[in-house]
């Protein structure tokens, strides 16, 4: 009987500890993903976060008129695109479990909302480097830090022909 009570007690302790760990994980996923700085924002993203989606959310929530950003960190998955000027589209290539040695881009606006333009360089565990225009990016094990510098002048992007490219517009700027 004592042995059974000890087993039940151990199982209860394991369940309580597991529940606390799950609660901590849930609360950390609801933790703020960015904070305001003197020059803009610092964003710290965690495993599984969609970097582009989080930057778009920040731009909307904070009504960022225009910003540039840089970042570093681990990517669970990054898809680069090389623009085919004849086909007028990106040819994608995806890499998994890489480190973003460099991430740089800008936030502007178009008729649909925030418009991001992002480039980067990723390295694998053999120190091979891959880079170019980023089509999608998700954080891997660890974290990714993104430093966003805001600007008061709102800038827009518009599709320009003949390339069918989304180009940053400087009109109406001083």
Assign a percent range to the helix content: 10-25%
The tally of domains stands at 2
How much is the radius of gyration in Å? 21 Å
Question: What is the count of helical runs?
Answer: 2
Plain-language structure description:
With 174 residues, the protein is α+β, with helices and mostly antiparallel strands. It has 2 domains: 31 residues; 137 residues, Hypothetical protein, similar to alpha- acetolactate decarboxylase, domain 2 (60s Ribosomal Protein L30, Chain: A). It is built from 2 helices and 8 strands. Strands 1, 2, 3, 4, 5 and 6 form a 6-stranded antiparallel beta sheet that branches. The chain has a two-stranded antiparallel sheet with strand order 7-8. A hairpin with a 4-residue loop joins strand 7 and strand 8. The longest helix has 28 residues. The protein starts with a helix and ends in a 5-residue tail after the last strand. About 7% of the residues have low confidence.
